[in-house]
Amino acid sequence: MSVLQRPTGFISRFVLLCALLLSASAHLQAQTPLGPQPDLRLLIDISGSMKESDPDNLRGPALELIVRLLPDGARAGVWIFGEDVQQIVPHQVVDAQWRERALEAVARIDNSGQRTNIPAALAAATYDLGSMDPTYRTSVVLLTDGKVDLSASPMANATAARDLLANTAPELGATGIPVHTIALSEEADWTFLRALANSTAGLAEKARTAAQLTEIFVQSLEMVAPTARVPIVGNIFLIDDTVDEFTALVFLQEAGAEVTLTSPGGSVYSPEQRAEGVDWFESSQFALVTVTSPERGAWTLAAPEGARSRVSVISDLKLEVDPLPNSLPAGRVTELGIRLRDAEGVISQPELLQLFTLAVQVTGPDGYSESIDVSGRYPVPATGEYRVSVPAFERGGRYQVLVQLRGETLERELPLYVEVIAEEAAPAISTRPAEVPEQDLQRPAVTLIALLLLALAVAFWVYRRRRKRKMAIWQRRFDASRGGADDTVVSGLSATDPDSGGNEKAP
């Protein structure tokens, strides 16, 4: 019998048993407090160049999607920036009132900015640096299509960018505040944005088209606030008795593509057929549907071929995973903390944990894949928390760490992402110089040529001045040897007379 065909009554008995056992053992074990809640701070570029980088203003729908996906209880704020910085969504706890204000603010995203003042934007978003609430885990997401541009002076812009990387970024990294950067144009200063992300243990993304922006935004949210999903097999996913609400997100390749949702009882839902407890939101890039108090059983999500889909859930039974560092050096071993939690706290009873199987699936560059059988490799922990060792990654690149939970009629997945930074290999012995990227050579080469031209000009000027001084000295010596231009010829001397043979003197 497949997991989609098993009776759902078991999970009801399990939840009841879980509650009874936890009640009975409450006096024996203190409950583990909830981990830090996410704190997301979004910085969105509204400079005039966005007219070309984002002609359809897809930043607006992408922000609206993030607003709808942010979990209640998180904190979030939104700033827009050009030459100046404005806060368009207050930095507050996410609730219904905050969402309403945030959705109204989407209309303020335009292309009215004159410059790209990234340092001022970062300063505004980290206004409380040094006094942040430790019960929240803060992250900054920076979207821009340009580079640091706060002045007409290239020297001032370069100085500001250098100061940000040398001082601000290390301070943010030391405080544990990653800055995830998104470049929305080939004109963006990718070298600077990547360095900013690396210095703060953040991730750098490049959206080669505005259409890719929504998916990158969602992945940024997953890094800040990992959310459990239910796996989709074909186009079917299972909703169990513990799920209070689920949200299906479908990324579309063509605008206007049809998406429908069919319940286990056969009811069909679509954007045109509204129903109580079913909320749809659509754009040209995606379709989002949230179902509250859903029917238990196998649901069907019909979407166009090639569409990418995911279903996240809000459930009484939570799969919790300690977040990995956003970036790691190659060769470093890391560790995952994995727990199951219900309304009473972390589940630690062995007889309950043995009802589930845990696994970790790691995928990465060049087809890398590794599976860790957590339930088979690790004994049931007395605290209820598995400490899973993740092997060191030797190759640089982006890795996905997918934590998988399976029960009798329950399935969960929780994705994490990590960027592995590999040091460049030492070059083999060779007489050929190492190749340097063109962008790394261009600026030093221009500077060197300018210095050489300046040195040649100075040398030529010094040479001309010395030559003039020597000519003046020679002229004075010559004039002195002549005794002056008006002196008479010395008497008693004459030119040689050719007839005298050169030996006679004048009379």
UniProtKB/TrEMBL annotation:
Origin superkingdom: Bacteria
Transmembrane segments: 445-463
Ranges for region Disordered: 483-507
InterPro entries recorded: CLCR, VWF_A, vWFA_dom_sf
Pfam family, one: VWA
Signal sequence extent: 1-30
VWFA domain segment(s): 39-221
Keywords (A to Z) from UniProt: Membrane, Signal, Transmembrane, Transmembrane helix
Name of the protein described by the UniProt record: VWFA domain-containing protein
Organism encoding this protein: Haliea salexigens
Organism lineage: Bacteria, Pseudomonadati, Pseudomonadota, Gammaproteobacteria, Cellvibrionales
